[in-house]
Amino acid sequence: MSSIPDATRFLHVVELGLGAWQWGDRFIWQFGQGYDEEAIREAFLASIQAGVRLVDTAEVYGNGRSERLLGAFLKETEEPVLVATKFMPFPWRLSRRSLLRALRNSLERLGLNQVDLYQIHWPFPPLSIETWMEAMVEAVEKGLTRTVGVSNYNLSQMMQAYATLQRHGLPLASNQVKYSLLDRRVEKNGLLARCKELGVRLIAYSPLEMGLLTGKYGPENPPPGVRGTRYRRLLPSLPRLIERMRQIGEAHGGKSPSQVALNWLICKGALPIPGAKNAAQAIQNAGASGWRLSEAEIEELDELSDEITQEK
Ligand SMILES: NC(=O)c1ccc[n+]([C@@H]2O[C@H](COP(=O)([O-])OP(=O)(O)OC[C@H]3O[C@@H](n4cnc5c(N)ncnc54)[C@H](OP(=O)(O)O)[C@@H]3O)[C@@H](O)[C@H]2O)c1
């Protein structure tokens, strides 16, 4: 790995974070059905208690509610918590100033003067990557964010962001992309390798493939709502992978499939940020850190994953 800039080193020390998309989202996650604010509060506090020190949110999650809840929960802990949030480049946001305005609104909801990581959520037009990165430089200069990240950027988009920041003497801290045992595009298209070379932290979102890798869903028991439709074709081959993950987890002192899925990502050099709807899920996910799968186990899981994803 290349040298990691001092300013972004903290992100490389963190093994695992907590995702906060579930906090208030009704459309995909059905907030209010089966879990509520109190369950999320407990998930947050349990994560902190278990040693998780990074929370990932976004201005669009629950329409601001996720940031507002995080702001309230932060007041309940003395522990230092790293906060990452995101800017959505909506098509009506047509100037650099809109990023600073959005960041100030996020900070107000979070009750903070500065976030640790501010990310561009998607590489959407019409404004160029360079323009948003220049706005990010201003946000760092004003002390509103400690570091700059991107999300859902492909290799060439990430390089554009990297080069623009570099011209201003700033490092690109991270690229947050979809990565799990059931979606290994970043391994195959070179993005993960390039991130390692550049010292850019690859943050893995949907690391449990939206719940599929927890082992609780299958062809007879699909996930509810939109997820059921989205994963219809993958579900029939899933039990084979889950069964092997269970066996591997057993050999590590009774680790669950979720913990194996997250540890596999840690072993690959990514930073997974699983979402949790309650304390039990949060505690289990936190147990994915602090140990390692063997090389042989990783290889075997890679092969099984290839077989299954090619079948769908
Ligand atoms: N940058 C982006 O564009 C982007 C996109 C997506 C996500 N993200 C970030 O990544 C985070 C994580 O991704 P994600 O939320 O899509 O999916 P995920 O972490 O792969 O899956 C989370 C879901 O799995 C289930 N679950 C989690 N832990 C469990 C456990 N131990 N046992 C049983 N079930 C468990 C819960 O849902 P059920 O109980 O309902 O199954 C939970 O809501 C998000 O919160 C967000 O911060 C970013």
Kindly list the characteristics that best describe this protein.
single chain, 312 residues, alpha/beta, 8-stranded parallel sheet, 8 strands, globular, binds NADP nicotinamide-adenine-dinucleotide phosphate
List the total number of helices. 13
Compressed to H and E, one letter per element, the order equals HEHEHEHEHEHEHHEHHHEHH
User: Terminal Cα separation, in Å?
Assistant: 34 Å
Rg of Cα set = 19 Å
Largest β-sheet summary:
8 strands, parallel
What's the CATH class label? Alpha Beta
Summarize the amount of helix as a percent range. Answer: 40-55%
CATH superfamily name? NADP-dependent oxidoreductase domain
Q: What share of the residues does DSSP label as strand, in percent? A: 5-15%
CATH architecture: Alpha-Beta Barrel
Q: What ligands are attached or bound here?
A: NADP nicotinamide-adenine-dinucleotide phosphate
Reading side by side through the largest sheet, how are the strands ordered? 1-2-3-4-5-6-7-8
Low-pLDDT stretches are none
Alpha-beta classification:
alpha/beta
Number of domains: 1
The geometry reads as globular
- The strand count comes to 8
The CATH topology is TIM Barrel
The residue-averaged pLDDT reads 96
Describe this structure in words.
- The chain has 13 helices and 8 strands.
- It has helices at residues 9-13, 37-49, 65-74, 96-110, 129-141, 155-167, 185-188, 191-198, 226-230, 238-251, 257-267, 279-286, 295-311; strands at 18-19, 54-56, 82-87, 115-120, 145-151, 172-178, 201-205, 271-272.
- Strands 1-2-3-4-5-6-7-8 form an 8-stranded parallel β-sheet.
- It is globular and about 50 Å long.
- Bound molecules: NADP nicotinamide-adenine-dinucleotide phosphate (NAP).
- NADP nicotinamide-adenine-dinucleotide phosphate binds at residues 19-22, 29, 56, 121, 151-152, 176, 205-211, 214, 216, 223, 258, 273-277, 281, 284-285.
